[in-house]
């Protein structure tokens, strides 16, 4: 039996459309990152936002039934989550601290 490594994700409650949620994340937690909206055919379908800074890339996806390849129903009350596509997952800890400081509800979880 193979042990599948799970990936840490940071769920967030932002009651905003994707582009505005991405802008809010940059403002609050990732001010030195560039962002780009992309089509997610290569990472699960739907539109997503990619944040990049040097060797680190973070992906913001919609967590809903309209995006079944990335939907995590165990946290369906969170409309978005971020995960590290490239780089150290420690950036999620820093993001969480920034979110909490600004009153944005968030929590850690995992995805396969």
Task: Report on the architecture of this protein.
This protein is of the alpha+beta class and 112 residues long. The protein has one domain (7-111): TATA-Binding Protein, CATH 3.30.310. The protein is 21% helix and 35% strand.
Using the coordinates shown, work out and report the CATH topology: TATA-Binding Protein
**Could you tell me the radius of gyration in angstroms?**
13 Å
Q: Helix count? A: 2
Report the sheet with the most strands, covering strand number, pairing sense and barrel closure: 6 strands, antiparallel
> Shape from CA axes?
globular
The residue ranges in which pLDDT falls below 50 over 5 or more consecutive positions are none
Helix-and-strand structural type:
alpha+beta
């Amino acid at each position: 039996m193979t042990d599948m490594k799970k990936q840490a994700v940071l769920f967030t409650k932002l009651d905003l459309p994707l582009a505005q949620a991405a802008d809010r994340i940059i403002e609050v937690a990732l001010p030195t990152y560039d962002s780009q909206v992309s089509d997610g055919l290569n990472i699960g379908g739907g539109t997503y936002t990619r944040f990049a800074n040097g060797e680190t890339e973070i992906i913001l996806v919609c967590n809903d039934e309209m995006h079944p390849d990335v939907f995590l129903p165990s946290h369906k009350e969170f409309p978005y989550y971020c995960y590290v596509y490239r780089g150290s997952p420690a950036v999620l800890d820093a993001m969480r601290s920034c979110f909490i400081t600004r009153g944005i509800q968030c929590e850690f979880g995992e995805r396969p």
